[in-house]
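Annex B. Sample input.
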Amino acid sequence: MTPGRRSSTFTRLLRHGFTDASAAERLLDSPELAAVRDDPVLLEALGATADPDLALHGLVRLLEAQPGPTAHQGLLDTLIAAKPLRDRLLGVLGASAALADHLARHPRDWEALVTYEPRDLHPGVAEFERGLAEAGDPVGLRVAYRRCLLSIAARDVCGTTDVAETAAELADLATATLRAALALAERAAPEDAAACRLAVIAMGKCGGHELNYVSDVDVIFVGEAAAGADEAKALRSATKLASHMMRICSETTVEGSIWPVDANLRPEGRNGPLVRTLSSHLAYYQRWAKTWEFQALLKARPVAGDPDLGQEYLDALEPMVWKAAERENFVADVQQMRRRVVENIPLAEVDRELKLGPGGLRDVEFAVQLLQLVHGRADATVRSGTTLVALKTLAAGGYVGRADATQLDDAYRFLRSMEHRIQLYRLRRTHLVPEDQADLRRLGRSLGLRTDPVAELTREWKRHTGVVRRLHEKLFYRPLLDAVAQLGPGEARLSPKAARERLEALGYADPAAALRHLEALASGVTRKAAIQRTLLPVLLGWFADSADPDAGLLNFRKVSDALGKTPWYLRLLRDEGAAAENLARVLSAGRLAPDLLMRAPEAVALLGDGDAGAREGGGPGGGLEPRPRGQLERETLAAVGRADNAADGVRAARGVRRRELFRTAAADIVDSYGTETNPAEADQGALVDRVGGAVSDLTAATLAGTLRAVVREGWGDTLPTRFTVIGMGRFGGHELGYGSDADVLFVHEPRDGVADREAADAANKVVSEMRRLLQIPSADPPLLIDADLRPEGKSGPLVRTLKSYEAYYRRWSLVWESQALLRAETVAGDEELGSRFIELIDPLRYPAEGLGEDAVREIRRLKARMESERVPRGTDPKLHTKLGPGGLSDVEWTVQLIQLRHGWAEPGLRTTRTREALAAACAAGLLGPEEAAILDEAWVLATRVRNAVMLVRGRAGDTFPSGSRELAAVGRYLGYGEGHAGDMLDAYRRTARRARTVVEELFYGA
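Annex B, continued. Sample output.
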């Protein structure tokens, strides 16, 4: 060969899609192709395949394997003369290395591709049965199966059949193969065959007439005794036949295996008998079956064995399938099944998973099946076991939007085509998109993407998975909007009854009210209604994912009504994905956050990226991150400074508090629930610290603003006495919850030249006015000030001078007061005076050499009395988060006793915060790491429960709610799914019990 000719051939090969032109040249120059190597028809045909290099290599192997010169020449002549054969054979060789191997082992099987009759274009079960008829043993059945598979693949890669027709043919071939395998099993055991009737029910993709090239074939077996036979013996015989049939298909021989036959969808799964009687099947499904098992029966189809028995099985179970949506636990099951299961997929493979990954095939299939269960009970037209047929009928009935159905149909076909071609290459069961560039190139070209196969394939694949992800939720909800909207002539819609059924199935307790809300929000032709119709399908899904979907939708309507004329509101929800999902979570998680939002709906701007509200005048942005105390105090003081009087100033301060309480609650809910892009916060302690710190800082800023407002109105810039507020209890410990009062002490010191009486009157007036203004009924939640921890308690004066405190503590202080002072911290007012108060009390709360034994006994006595007297009647003490065993009081008193005994020697213990003190005690070796972890876990959990109760009920509580819906909402906040409230209570009791054991050892010395 001359260099010029070689260069010309080399270039032509590259132009026709060969990647290794040098190797292709050598193959074309081989003796097997000598007669046709210059024929342009051959090169064009090879270039049209998915992988020209693979096709050429397979062709040479096939020619080498021909039994003689005559067969060799016959193949070449037919190849050049018959375009249908050329396209089919080379198409298969360029797409499937596994089928090329088969042809090399069975070199005459290419002749199966020659025929081109009308019946050959779309064969059914009968044609495939004829193709398998000569198989007399399992090995022969495998060879015949691959020969039939060869013809299916040829029609597929040439475009003679589309992906749905290919999947149907594969299911028909599987049906014929199961029948042939059963016949072989019966031939091997005629006595067993005579003793029983056996029906094979196809499930899954085989039952749905949509099988893959390589897939488990799911089946269920039904057996009955033949006339006059003993039932027990007949079932044993049927089980032997079924087991043998499975082995014939599944076992590996010299010709490989066909596919695994999987019977795990049967009642009781692997633990149940392989074959049951029809009555046994019925008894199981009537009493024990779960919702997913009825979902699986959507695709049940008798395929082999006794056809009458198979039909009896179908007739008996079908009514149960269409009543599944009426089952008591259907909603809970559906909500659980709707959550995508990707935990078992290795992280590195999630983005390559065609079947189970986000936007994958399972999303489409599940959505369609769920809609069938809901609407198939009243509409028999939607009961098809085939996904694409069911999707088409759902659209025709108005159960799915037509445009959505079209897009999902396109996406599903593309993803199934990818899956088919990936499996066809090696005939291996996989749903992973390959990473190798050569594999991606072949895959792209096999789907007709020829310009830049890898880039085009990636772009189309991501586009279609994006469509599925976007429409997966909308598929359920958009038709609900169509049911209440004005549709064009001839467009189908859900009937009111069907819409109510769907809402019930998705967890809405009052579907009629929900439909009224949808109509109010989405009907009409305004731009606002159009945006709502875009938002609501996704929002409805997020509402349904909560414990109270009805409340979520109602609250959304209220917010939308309040902000309906605000230009930035709907734009914020439409354009910032996080804002819409955050709002849905907040509105459906309980009463507190929606109540706070309804009092000033413009705070919805906080749910976005932090810029929308500032841009549009909706208040400060900042998103959901808590703001530091200094920033809060500056804003509060500035708002007070702009007010005309004290009442207006405190009203402004309370407004800031309300908005920031909403920010804190919203952040807590979003972090606890998680979103589609950000999982729930795993560190429960961090969530507690965040809420406690934010609410405590906010309370301090509110008191500072209120103090400023009262002083300015009564005395101008300077009060006659220096005045400071000391935070106590949870306030001083930075551990306030949403419903906590502010425990405080008030301290004053007369200024030079001011009489004691004048100073005292001024201080008392300040305290009285602060308490009054913070409790005036208004749209903002009140802030209750509790000064009962002051010297002499309720009998003592509300405010004292520093000297009075010093005199009291020197002469009269009790051990419980020293304990209470462990939490004391300056929160507002004169900082220097506050520092001197802290210096005064440090020797009391961290006594030199620690507590004496008498004082320790007194603290234990007080704690024991509190346990016996203060738990409310009728309350389960084991579930009381504050006073119950292992609750907040147990942990806090234990930690405080350690502080009182060892704080003088261990600087780390000199903190007002429970968790910090506990960690310091552990670091100092005063308790073990395991004990510290147990106490910390119990304290965090009890605090989380109290926060959850306030968020859910809108009022404080120390025990779990009794109502099932409120209890479920608390569970969702704590990370428990639908139907797991009992697990939550058990976990609380278990955690508290372990903590109590530690408390008894450390606190009581048991």
